[in-house]
Write a structure and sequence with these properties.
Elements lengths: L5 E6 L3 H16 L3 E2 L7 E6 L4 H20 L5 E5 H7 L1 H7 L3 E3 L7 H9 L4 E3 L20 E5 L1 E2 L10 H4 L4 E2 L2 H13 L4 E5 L7 E2 L2 E2 H9 L6 E5 L8 H9 L6 E3 L7 H6 L6 H14 L4 E8 L6 H14 L3 E6 L17 H25 L4 E9 L5 E5 L5 E5 L7 E9 L3 E10 L2
Parallel strand pairs: 1-2, 1-3, 3-4, 4-5, 5-6, 7-10, 10-13, 14-15, 15-16, 19-21
Antiparallel strand pairs: 8-9, 11-12, 17-18, 17-20, 18-19, 20-21
Helix pairs in contact: 8-9, 12-13
The protein binds S-adenosyl-L-homocysteine (SAH), iron/sulfur cluster and FE3-S4 cluster.
The site of iron/sulfur cluster has 10 residues, from helix 6.
Length: 437
């Protein structure tokens, strides 16, 4: 197979995968390849997610579809599988799908070398979990959109009984303070106005005695950086320092994604979540006391093994008690190698369907309620891209709502708007005074 000249990276899964996908693209560009469409590229990198069975199976159907399309056009692209499926399944993917390269989420700095090896005729694999070595070997960030991701923490030590992340991403590790500040500076130089700090447990980030709130307070002083966000947080790592930062730091946006998964203490214990319903609710009380307008977001799993109707009802009542601005909810998916996969009393699929539907009805109701409650408020919107209509631009409110508005402002501008209309998934804003960012 000849060495590829063009490439395409397709990322699935969480924001950390999006970040990794961007870094892989930068790496291949620095190696002399040019970006192309998935159906035309010599090299296609599928940056995969293993979190639920559906996500994993998608990889294999995608590979099939890519191959079929290429064959019809007389081409044979090199296929690389990266990300969490690569880590979990390793050489199995080469055996099952005859792909050329398999590279794990902590090893992708070796992608150019693996591609060369594959071009020379041998399938290439690197699934080392040596934490953090990749960051030193990636090129500097050069061009990014107004809202950029920055991974500061990797891996997870929590071992929730349903979850593959501790196995696919390895142990919790934090990048060094100075390296993060340097990358943030490069991102601002490359066009970022907002940075979202990423980690599987981002609030577990630490460097010596410094915690995430210290990092946020430092980035707050970075000229040209107007907004800071962070995700995903674990309730047990949410410190008073971080809560105080929500009170004091103006550039820290009033939004918190704090997954709870379930509302029953029995289920939370079986999930190994190490927080209770009550400790979670009390934590939210403290955050709301510090930042009353904070928008809350969460993740939920329905149908964890053994979940009864009464226990599911406790999830619904927790949702009622919190009033989430938005949330993600999933049917439990048994994952190979996790303790929950072999637990007794797996819940029937139709019961899960029913519970998911009822939960989503409640979450949608609350999302619309939250959006409606923000009507009439004035706030800044960071313009992220053009809308479909002439003169229409799309951006985000401080509470992470999508806002569309008619404006002369450009991508990257911060515009002062009044929120005037709420749909199910977005709002419209009326420009007040436009200001250059
Ligand atoms: N580190 C984050 C979440 C990472 S995974 C945290 O703990 O909050 C994102 C979400 O996927 C989880 O919050 C959970 O809701 C969901 N998830 C993880 N494993 C799952 C499984 N086996 N089945 C269904 N949903 C799952
Ligand atoms: Fe998975 Fe739990 Fe770790 Fe989140 S905290 S990544 S759900 S093991
Ligand atoms: Fe998926 Fe891996 Fe992220 S399993 S959710 S891509 S950490």
């Amino acid at each position: 197979m000849p060495a590829p000249k063009t490439f395409h990276v397709k990322s699935f899964g969480c924001q950390m995968n999006v970040y990794d996908g961007e870094r892989m693209a930068e790496l291949m560009t620095a190696d002399g390849l040019t970006l192309a469409d998935a159906n035309a590229a010599d090299l296609v990198v599928l940056n995969t997610c293993h979190i639920r069975e559906k996500a994993t199976e998608k990889v294999y159907s995608d590979i099939g579809r890519l191959r079929k399309h290429a064959r019809q056009h007389g081409r044979e692209p090199m296929i690389a599988v990266a990300g969490c499926v690569a880590q979990a399944e390793g050489a199995e993917i080469i055996a099952r799908a005859k792909v050329d390269v398999v590279v794990g989420p902590q090893a992708y700095h070796t992608l150019p070398a693996l591609v060369r090896q594959a071009a020379a005729g041998a399938p290439a694999l690197d699934t080392d979990l040596l934490a953090l070595t990749k960051f030193d070997q990636l090129p500097t960030r050069r061009r990014v959109g107004p809202s950029a991701f920055l991974t500061v923490q990797e891996g997870c030590d929590k071992f929730c009984t349903y979850c593959v992340v501790p196995y696919t991403r390895g142990a919790e590790v934090s990048r060094a303070f100075d390296a993060i500040v340097e990358e943030a500076r490069a991102l601002v130089d490359a066009g970022a106005r907002e940075i979202t700090l990423l980690g599987q447990n981002v609030n577990a980030w630490a460097d010596g005695t410094r915690g995430l709130h210290d990092l946020i307070r430092t980035l707050d002083r970075l000229p040209g950086l107007h907004r800071i966000r962070y995700t995903t947080s674990h309730p047990n790592d949410l410190t008073q320092g971080l809560i105080d930062a929500h009170r004091d730091v103006e550039s820290l946006m009033p939004f918190l994604h704090l997954p709870v998964q379930a509302g029953s203490d029995r289920v939370l214990r079986a999930m190994n979540r190490s927080h209770t319903r009550d400790s979670y609710l009390r934590l939210l009380d403290r955050i709301r006391a510090a930042r009353p307008d904070i928008a809350l977001s969460g993740d939920f799993i329905v149908g964890f093994p053994g979940e009864t109707e009464a226990e599911f009802a406790e999830t619904l009542s927790l949702v009622d008690a919190v009033g989430y601005a938005q949330a993600f909810s999933f049917k439990y998916s048994p994952r190979p190698g996790t303790p929950a996969a072999t637990m007794a009393d797996q819940v029937a699929p139709e019961v899960m369907d029913d519970r998911l539907q009822r939960l989503q009805t409640a979450l949608n109701r609350d999302q619309q309620g939250f959006n409606a409650a923000t009507l009439g408020r004035s706030c800044t919107v960071l313009i992220e891209r053009r809308g479909k209509l002439p003169g229409q631009m799309l951006g985000k409110s401080p509470w992470l709502q999508s806002v569309h508005l008619l404006t002369d402002a450009q991508v990257g501008d911060l515009v002062e708007v009044e929120l005037v209309q709420a749909g199910p998934n977005s709002l419209s804003g009326l420009e007040r005074i436009s200001q250059a960012a």
